[in-house]
Specification:
The chain is an alpha/beta fold. It has helices spanning 14-29, 37-47, 60-65, 72-81, 93-102, 118-121, 125-132, 148-151, 163-168, 182-192, 211-220, 234-237, 246-254, 271-277, 305-314, 323-339; strands at residues 50-55, 68-70, 86-90, 108-109, 139-143, 156-158, 176-179, 196-198, 225-228, 242-243, 261-265, 282-285, 347-348. The protein contains 16 helices and 13 strands. The longest helix is centred in the C-terminal third of the chain and has 17 residues, at 323-339. The protein is globular and about 55 Å long. Residues 57, 92, 117-119, 145, 203-206, 267, 297, 299-300 line the site of iron/sulfur cluster.
Length: 351
């Protein structure tokens, strides 16, 4: 375990955030309302030799414009391989940071710098470094949903696609610390039979799924299978027929043509790809506690078509990172890429 103390750089302090908002609204006013934004985004991508990476939780219109659509692992792999001059990341801040860690010489743009993540934000690097002092000799495994400063404190980064496989590759007597998602950590413990010290973080979107409401829904849809992301609470996961990363859920739906109805307990953005893959199937959102009909990540939805156009047109906001932090974070990210036995399929445009 590394014993670095890294001062947490706030993702976007309030004054910067307000400044960005004012700047965004000023630039948004400059957009000609008759402009075909999709066509302009395609044109600017070509003109600037930019690659557009989009997470499954983005709006469907953004997914449709992207060169690569995928989960965190697939997009990290795409970022590691790209020969584009500019990377535009339609996802959240930690994902764009991961692309920057892998591509120090390329501008990495994020349409809205406020697109954060509850998991990453609730694991400040200074507190995390303090907490780690209780676990000398442990291998520090961190979910990719963490800031670059927290990644810099880690030995290996994992995603929900490869966490189980990577933990299984470690010697059985090696003690492990896992952060920052306690639900994913508990699920990995169950899959691997390894006990780990867990940082008590959670995702505000996935923690909203409620086992009692899910039970009512399954009673109303007895012909449906429940598929759930491991960031959900244990009580919800116990009711699932299949548990997996966003990509694994999509693959499950594709691979079970006999099944015609699914109750989905993850962010609603993935339904766009599920409906494309299985137009014959019905998808029902697992009800979150919020009282809404489906679960949406408020951070992911900060990226809009207008902000994507503006960031391509103007070349900012850009992810900046100090070199010592980047170099320390690169090691565990690279280790993850090396230990990921199979490439996570990334969907290319036109797939
Ligand atoms: S869905 Fe949850 S884990 Fe994913 S970016 Fe949003 S807050 Fe973070």
């Amino acid at each position: 375990m590394q014993t670095l103390t890294v001062a947490q750089t706030p993702r976007n302090p309030a004054s910067e955030s307000l400044g960005q908002e004012l700047d965004l609204s000023r630039r948004a006013d400059s957009i000609d309302p008759s402009l075909d934004l999709e066509a302009e985004i395609r044109r600017l991508k070509r003109e600037k030799n930019a690659v557009l990476l989009a997470h499954y939780y983005q709006e469907s219109e953004i997914q449709d414009l992207a060169d690569h659509v995928g989960d965190s692992l697939a997009l990290s792999q795409a970022a590691a391989k790209t020969d584009a001059d500019v990377i535009v990341f339609c996802g959240v801040h930690f994902m764009a940071e991961t692309a920057k860690i892998l591509n120090p010489d390329k501008p990495v743009l994020l349409p809205d710098l406020d697109a954060g993540c509850s998991l990453a934000d609730r694991c400040p690097a200074d507190l995390y470094a303090e907490w780690l002092k209780q676990y000398p000799g442990h291998t520090v495994i961190n979910y990719i949903n963490s800031s670059a400063a927290v990644k810099a404190l880690s030995d290996i980064i994992v995603t929900s696609s490869n966490a189980v496989d990577i933990v299984k590759q470690l010697p059985p007597d090696q003690p492990i610390v896992f952060g920052p998602d306690r639900h994913l950590g508990r699920w990995v413990e169950k899959q691997t039979g390894r006990k780990m010290a867990l940082w008590p973080g959670f995702c505000i979107v996935h923690e909203q799924f409620n086992a009692r409401r899910l039970a009512k829904l399954t009673a109303a849809h007895p012909d449906a299978q429940v598929i759930a992301h491991p960031e959900c609470e244990e009580a919800v996961l116990e009711k699932a027929d299949f548990i997996g990363s966003t990509l694994a859920l999509l693959k499950y739906v594709e691979g079970h043509p006999e099944q015609r109805k699914f109750i989905v307990a993850t962010e609603v953005g993935i339904l766009h790809q599920m409906r494309r893959a299985r137009p014959d199937a019905e998808f029902v959102c697992s009800p979150p506690n919020s009282g809404c009909d489906c679960a949406m990540c408020p951070y992911m939805r900060l990226n809009t078509l207008e902000k994507l156009y503006l960031c391509l047109r103007d070349g900012y906001p850009e992810i900046v990172m100090d070199e010592p932090t980047r170099l320390r974070a690169l090691k565990p990210v690279q280790r993850m890429l090396d230990m990921s036995r199979s490439l996570s399929p990334v969907q290319q445009k036109g797939d």
